[in-house]
Design a protein that fits this description.
50% of the residues lie in helices and 13% in strands. By secondary structure, the protein is α+β, with helices and mostly antiparallel strands. The strands form two sheets. Strands 3-4-5-7-6 form a five-stranded mixed barrel. A two-stranded antiparallel sheet has the order 1-2.
């Protein structure tokens, strides 16, 4: 393009814009190690449970600058093929950026601001997903619904509560059908926006309504925070314990561990408070994450030696027994299965996922984080014992409590 003096601007023809867009798409995938289509096209379930840290101080990579410049240009071309390029690039960039452990929510908000939701299509594609060993059709959210989901999440992460409230409310009024429980997540962001705007009473009431539909740990945690702020420590503690016992990787619950430490400190249970603060700190050390000043300050007040990372597994096992002593859910009565690992999809510093074959040639998806003991032995053919969380409308069935039988 440099040799032939071909420039990308408002005068560039569709014949040049389209292949240039696909080039940006391939380059972005390569720079983010996206070597298969499954990760982007089929990873469609909500990612609300992931507690990312907000990284608002960043320098944009060259490829991101090119993409930001390109997206509005290609939308101006009234062509089905040009829109396909836009859709693929827009959705891939948003999905990848949102899933980073230190997501740039300011960048995600900027990308959403490049286009108006009224410019985006409302058509919903259908893909095949595997549920209980059978392939079933699943309808994906439209580009317009994805825009509202990404925009509202970025706004709540950035603390832009009034705009988040308005965007989320407009989204609920715009769509007749929602995907990935987006209606519940929009309602949740409205409640969190009200909390940010100082209306905690309404926030509690509305979050409890959302929790009746989506019994997720992070909603329980948010209610624990609200009740703590209102002075109801016992109710806050009950919600926090329910959250820690609820399904979800412990590495995503480091702020919940800190909250439990605070609540136990208020309940005058000093030893347990210290251990919860310590577990929050050890997971951060293991993952190479920054230790916040508030956590350092809390640990320093106990006058006890800081625990070292070699104590992580021992401390985690001890506290799991403590949490389970409050567990009144039927989780422990679930059937135990035996199977073998027959597929590993990803295995890296964040953990691993894949499929376990069991029973009458059935298979189930599994995911383990970087702190799980099973990761050290994980290999094709490994015999394991596990329990299963059944599939819902939004999530595929998943194996949990995976233990090696070898």
């Amino acid at each position: 393009m440099q040799i032939y003096k071909i420039y990308i601007n408002e005068n560039t023809t569709e014949r040049i814009l389209n292949p240039y867009g696909w080039l940006l798409y391939d380059k972005f995938k390569a720079e983010n190690n996206l070597n298969d289509n499954y990760q982007i096209e089929n990873e469609t379930f909500d990612d609300e449970e992931i507690e990312t840290t907000s990284n608002n101080h960043y320098s944009k990579s060259e490829i991101i600058q090119w993409i930001e410049y390109f997206l509005p240009l290609t939308l101006k071309v009234n062509s089905e093929f040009s829109y396909l390029v836009f859709s693929k690039l827009f959705n891939t960039v948003l999905k990848v950026e949102k899933k980073k452990p230190n997501a740039n929510w300011k960048l995600i908000n900027e990308i959403c601001n490049l286009v108006s939701p009224e410019q985006l299509h409302t058509t919903c594609d259908v893909i095949e997903v595997e549920r209980k060993g059978q392939k079933k059709p699943m309808e994906l959210a439209s580009d317009k619904e994805n825009w509202f989901a990404s925009k509202s999440k970025a706004l709540i992460k950035l603390g832009m509560f009034q705009e988040c409230y308005e965007v989320s409310k407009y989204a609920l009024e715009t769509f007749d059908v929602f995907h990935y429980s987006n209606d519940a997540w929009f309602a949740r962001r409205i409640a969190l926006s009200k909390k940010g705007l100082g209306n905690s009473a309404d926030a509690i009431s509305e979050l409890e309504q959302v929790l009746r539909r989506k019994k997720e740990w992070f909603i329980q945690k948010e209610l624990a925070v609200l009740y703590k702020e209102s002075g109801d420590i016992d109710k806050a503690f009950n919600y926090a314990i329910s959250a820690i016992n609820n399904f979800g990787d412990l590495e995503y619950k480091i702020e919940l561990l800190f909250l439990l430490g605070e609540l136990l400190k208020l309940k005058k249970e000093s030893d347990l408070a210290f251990k919860h603060f310590s577990l929050s700190q050890l997971i951060r050390v293991k993952e190479g994450w920054k230790i916040p000043l508030k956590l350092q300050s809390e640990l320093s007040q106990f006058g006890r030696p800081i625990m070292t990372v070699d104590k992580l597994q021992e401390l985690k096992a001890e506290l799991k027994k403590y949490w389970n002593s409050f567990n009144t859910t039927p989780e422990n009565t679930k059937q135990v299965y035996v199977g073998k690992i027959n597929q590993i999809l990803h295995n890296n510093e964040k953990g691993a996922d894949g499929r376990i074959k069991y029973g009458n040639n059935e298979s189930v998806y599994f995911r383990v984080n970087s702190t799980d003991e099973i990761l050290k032995k994980l290999d094709i053919g490994l015999i394991v014992e596990f329990k299963i969380i059944p599939a819902t409308e939004e999530k595929t069935a998943r194996a949990i409590h995976i233990v090696s039988k070898n």
